[in-house]
TrEMBL record:
Single GO MF descriptor: thymidine kinase activity
Annotated protein name in UniProt: Thymidine kinase
One family name in Pfam for this protein: TK
Keyword Calcium on entry: no
Coiled-coil stretches noted in the UniProt entry, renumbered to this chain: none
Nucleotide-binding found in the keyword field: yes
Enzyme class: transferase
Protein's organism: Pseudoruegeria aquimaris
Catalytic residues in the record: E88 (proton acceptor)
Lineage: Bacteria, Pseudomonadati, Pseudomonadota, Alphaproteobacteria, Rhodobacterales
Length: 196
């Protein structure tokens, strides 16, 4: 039975690596997959999903105005496809998450989404909020804070190396811009630690 999956975490937890490994597992068994990634994030090059450990694969891209139900339907019309994979799922719109749910329900195709849960301010991305509401299964991809605890938050760093507390929700970047932290150290970095 097809399901909508949401694999979420903070930055640098290995989400893209897991996506590429899962897609490879299908391919290794002779099954085709369909890979999608957000057009806005082209750090690995245009139309490409890549991991910090050096593996990558070409993908189709989506933008906020794209109808993913139609895109995936066209892919299915071209031939067999066992699963659709969506990287950078935090950039989906709520409507696109519903389109992915329709892919699962009406087309019977499993959809695996990988993305961030919260931004540097500790707020849900709209796509992630919708996936948390609609996904059939959710899996946390874990990474650790510098203290060794599980990292659940991320801070954005300015060019001067200082933590930014304000700014646009979306700013494409990697290790040069973001650091994953546990909640306690995120609160400390953001100046919001209680005086006990």
């Amino acid at each position: 039975m097809a399901k909508l999956y949401f694999h979420y975490s903070t930055m640098n937890a290995g989400k893209s690596t897991l996506l590429l490994q899962a897609a490879h597992n299908y391919t290794e068994r002779g099954m085709e997959t369909y890979l999608l990634t957000a057009r806005i994030d082209d750090r690995a090059g245009p139309a490409r999903i890549a991991s910090r450990i050096g593996i990558g694969k070409s993908a189709d891209t989506f933008d906020t105005e794209d109808d993913l139900f139609t895109m995936i339907g066209r892919r299915l019309a071209d031939g067999p496809c066992a699963c659709a994979f969506v990287d950078e799922a935090q950039f989906l719109t709520p409507e696109q998450v519903w389109q992915l749910a329709r892919v699962v329900d009406d087309l019977g195709l499993p959809v695996m989404c990988y993305g961030l849960r919260v931004d540097f301010r500790g707020e849900l991305f709209p796509g992630s909020a919708s996936l948390l509401a609609l996904a059939d299964e959710m899996r946390e991809v874990r990474t650790i804070c510098h203290c060794g605890k599980k990292a659940t938050m991320v801070v954005r760093m300015g060019p001067d190396g200082k933590v930014l507390k304000e700014g646009a929700q979306v700013q494409i970047g990697g290790n040069e811009s973001y650091v994953s932290l546990c909640r306690r150290h995120w609160r400390e970095a953001m100046g919001d630690r209680s005086q006990a």
